[in-house]
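Design request, tokens follow.
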């Protein structure tokens, strides 16, 4: 679990740096420049350490550079704020693969209710698309406080709630099916 949070922090580091610097300085150019430099430094550091970099790392760097450049040219932070939505859309697209979630489930779940796990995978994809669309809508307002609230409380809270609901529902269904099978 610690690895997951470290990866998420790494993936969103440029957005976090941008937001922090912008909130402290109220300077779009400085915040964007620091975010771009940070993203480049992050990739260089990983290469120096000999870490394997995947396609998503390079795609994220390209997004930071492109959206950062557009932000610098327009002096408009909304482009940088929209970056995490692209990640949500990409993850949502990956989650459209049938059965992607099965490998993350314990055997008792995959053996008892694989069809529900597949449905849950599609529900997660839909959630990623909705969160990404909401993030673009919030970024379009240009309100950094609203964006920070959305990305942390709304997006984070929706994922935590979805996980909890999924856990409870799958547990109830598995228990019900196992009891029914035991009676039969």
């Amino acid at each position: 679990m610690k690895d997951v949070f470290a990866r998420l922090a790494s993936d969103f580091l440029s957005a976090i740096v941008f937001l922090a610097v912008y909130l402290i300085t109220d300077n779009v150019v400085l915040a964007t420049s620091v975010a771009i430099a940070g993203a480049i430094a992050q990739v260089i550091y990983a290469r120096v350490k000999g870490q394997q970099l995947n396609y998503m790392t390079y795609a994220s760097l390209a997004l930071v550079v492109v959206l950062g450049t557009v932000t610098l040219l327009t002096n408009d932070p909304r482009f940088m704020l929209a970056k995490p939505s692209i990640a949500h859309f990409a993850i949502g697209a990956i989650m459209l693969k049938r059965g992607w979630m099965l490998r993350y489930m314990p055997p008792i779940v995959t053996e008892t209710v694989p069809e529900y796990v597949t449905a849950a995978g599609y529900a997660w994809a839909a959630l990623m698309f909705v969160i990404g669309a909401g993030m673009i809508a919030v970024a379009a307002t240009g309100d950094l406080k609203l964006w920070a609230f959305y990305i942390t409380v709304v997006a984070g809270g929706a994922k935590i709630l979805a996980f909890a609901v999924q856990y409870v529902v799958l547990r109830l269904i598995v228990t019900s099916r196992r009891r029914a099978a035991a009676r039969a």
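Comment from the thread starter after seeing the answer: thanks! The mean pLDDT is 87.
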